[in-house]
Predict the 3D structure of the following.
Amino acid sequence: MKKWNVRAEIISVGTELLLGDIVNTDAAFLARELAALGISCYYQSVVGDNPTRLRGMLEAACVRSELVILTGGLGPTADDLTKETAAVVMGKTLCLHEESYARIRDVLKKRGLTESENQIKQAMLPPDAEVFANDYGTAPGFAMETEIDGRNVTMILMPGPPRELEPMFAEKVRPYLSMRSGEVFYSLNIGIYGIGEAIVGQILRDRMEEARNPTIAPYCGEGEVRLRLTARGESEEICRALCLETAEQIRLVPCTPYREGILDDYIFGIDTPSMQATLVSMLARRSMKVTTAESCTGGMIAKRITDVPGASAVFEGGFVTYADHTKISLLQVREETVLQHSVYSAEAVREMAFGAMRAVLADCAIAVSGVAGKEDLVCTANGKPLTVDAGCVYIACAVGNECRTECVTFAPGRRNALEAREYVRSRASAHALAMLIGMLKHRCGTETE
Amino acid sequence: MKKWNVRAEIISVGTELLLGDIVNTDAAFLARELAALGISCYYQSVVGDNPTRLRGMLEAACVRSELVILTGGLGPTADDLTKETAAVVMGKTLCLHEESYARIRDVLKKRGLTESENQIKQAMLPPDAEVFANDYGTAPGFAMETEIDGRNVTMILMPGPPRELEPMFAEKVRPYLSMRSGEVFYSLNIGIYGIGEAIVGQILRDRMEEARNPTIAPYCGEGEVRLRLTARGESEEICRALCLETAEQIRLVPCTPYREGILDDYIFGIDTPSMQATLVSMLARRSMKVTTAESCTGGMIAKRITDVPGASAVFEGGFVTYADHTKISLLQVREETVLQHSVYSAEAVREMAFGAMRAVLADCAIAVSGVAGKEDLVCTANGKPLTVDAGCVYIACAVGNECRTECVTFAPGRRNALEAREYVRSRASAHALAMLIGMLKHRCGTETE
C-alpha cells in the first residue's frame, strides 16, 4: 500500500509554554495522531511569541521536514505573530478571508462581545490556503503549500487551546491529511486490565511485528493497557471491518506461559473510553443498579462511576465509610467481624458490600478497605496486634447473592507519601472496577460499542 | 542584585515523546523551575533516540544558549545515547565514576536484580562533571562545562522519569544553579479562590510590575489562582522573611472596584498545597470532623478530602446520594422538601448537610446537589415543572448549627458533554471546599504552614 512519504515536525508557539505555566499536551496529542496516520515525526519544538526566533526555527524546519505543524499564536493581539511569520517564510501574502471574518463576527455577536479593531487580523489568510473553520473559537486554522529548494513543503497552523485544536484536528485536519495521503485511517482500542504491558508485548510480539493492516500498538494507562489497532484503506467501513477481525483474533490468543487463559479474560472492553464507561453500559443493558462502600479509596470509585454521563440510570447512592464506626453504623458491618478480623479483611469488605446493597436496594456492589499510605499499619484482630502491609487492599464485589473477595497489595515502591497514596488509591479503584466487570462479563459478554 | 546572565534551553530526548505516548511534563516542570530561578529559557525541543539528529540539535543549542538542560536517554540499553552524544559535542571523554557504579550495584541488589553487562554504561561520566546522585533510580545526573567559541557553556543531563527527575532537580540541581548564580531563591505560594486571574491581575498590576524582590506572578489553576512570590538573597531565612512580608501586604490590598473587601477575603491559604489540605489542617487544629453529602459531585469532594494524608483524623464518612430516594432514606431529607422545592434547592442541600452530620456525628458538613451535564433539566416542584439550568449547583456548608447555602451556576460553555460534566463537577467541588474554609477562617484565621 502506498504511503505519503513526508517527514513531519511539530512547533508550538507560546511564552506560557516556555515559562512552564502550561504543559504541552497539544504536542503529545498531535504526535499520537500523526503516528496513527503513519506519518513520521522527528522533532517537536517550543518557541515563545518572538518573531525572530520563530522565523529561525521555521526556516530550519522547512529544510529538514516536508510537513510542519504549528500551534498557538493565532490570537487577535499584536504579539500573536505565528501566522504573519509563517507567511513570510512560505512566501505568502495575507488577504481578508471573507467567510472566516463573517464567522468571527458571528461568534462575537453570540457571545455578546463587540468586535475589536484587531479581530480582522484573525481573518487574514493566504489566498490559496485550505481553511479549517474553528467551531470552538475565533481563530481559523489553515494549511498552505509551497516549493522550497525543489521540495514541496506543507505548513498547517492551528489554534493552541486544546478545546479548539482537538476537534479541529479530528474533524478537519485529519480528513485533509487522509486526503493528501490518498487513504482513510481508522483506529480501534482494546482495553486490557490485570496483565502488564510487558507481558502483553511478549504474548503478542510476533503478531505485532507481522501486523501491517491494521497495525497493533500497546499503550500503557493507569493500571491498564490499551491496544490500538489502526487500519488504512479505501473507506471507514473496510478499515473498521479489518480492525474488528483482528480484534477477534487477539481475543483468542493464549496468555501462556505468563498467565492462565486467553487474552479475552483480561479484556474489559473494545472501543470503550474507560473502565467506568464499560461498567455503566453493562449495568444499563441489564437494568442493574450498583452501589459503593469505600474506605481507603474515599469516594474515588463513586466519582469514577459518576464521571460517566448517564450514570444516574445505574448508580443511586454510595458510601464513604472511612472510620470503623461508620462501617458499623452505616453499613451494618458486625462488630464481631471487626473485632475478630479487623476492617482489613475479606469478611469486613464482604459485609460492607452486602450492607451497602441493602441500604440503597442495589443489585450489585463494590466494597474496598485497605491501607493507602506508604507505612504499614498495625490494628487489632482477635485481641492481638495485626500488621497490615502498606498498599494492601481488600476488595469485595457482590452481584445478587454472589460475592467475590480479593486481597491485593499495590506496592507503593519508592514513591513519596503523597504519590504512594494516590497510586494505591487509584490502582485499587481500577482493580475493583475490573473485578465487577469480570463478574458481569460472564453474564453478558465483552462490551463492544 | 547581580544575575547569572545565561540563556537556557531544554531538550527532551525520547522516541516515546515523539510518538505522543507520554506528555512532556518534564519540560513544563523545568521551565517553571528555571523561571523561578530568574533564568530565561527561549527554546524547548524534543528529539528521538537518534544520535545524528540529537547531535545536530545540541550543536545548534550550544551556539544560541549558555545553559542546555537535557532529560532522558540515560538508560542502560544501547539505544540510550544522550550522554555519549552530549560528551562528543562538549569534547569530553567518559570514565568510570566509581561512586555512581557502587550506588547502581547497591540499588540493583536491593531490588533483587542481577547486574547486566550494560549497567556499567550508566556509571560512565566525564571526569570533571558535577555529579547528581539519583535517589530514585540508577542513572546519575550531572553537569559539565566547556568553552565553545569563547563562551562558557554548561550542559546538565538528568533522567527522564519525573519520579527521578523532580527530586533530583529539587534536591541537587536547584542548589547547584543557585550556587552558580551566587544566590539563594525561595518561593511562597498564596492560594486564592473566588476571584479570577484577570481581576487579581488588575488589582495587583502596579504591585506586580514594581515588585523586584520578591517577584509576584499569578498562575491559574482549577478554579483557583495561585500567586507565586519568589525572593532571591543570601539565605533561605532572609528570602522567606521577604516573601512573608510581601504576603502580609498583599492580604490587605482592597479588591475595589471589582469586588468587595480585601484580597484576604479570597485567600484560602499561604504555602498550602491544595484547598483540601488547607481544610484538613484547619479541621485537625480544631479537632473537628467533617462529612459530605454529594449528589452531582458523586464522591469527588470526599475523594479530594481523602487525598490528603492524615484525612482520617477529620473525616470519618460521607454519602453519595445520587438518586432522590437515597437523599431521603440515607440523609433524612424530608419528602415534603423534595416535593415542594425539588432536590435542586437550598432547602434540600441544607437538610442533606444536617442529615449527614447527624448520621456520622460530624461537626461540619458539605452538601451538594445540582445539574452537572450540558443540558437544562426539568424536575417537579410544588407539582409544577421547574427548569434547572445546566451547571446550576446548590451547595450547603454547615458548621455546628450554622448553615450557609449558595446557588452557583458554572456555565459549561462550548465544552462537549463529557468536558462540561467534568468542569461543573470539579468547579462545584472547589467552590464547596472554599465555602467551608471561608466559614472556618472566621474562627481560626488564614492557614500558613
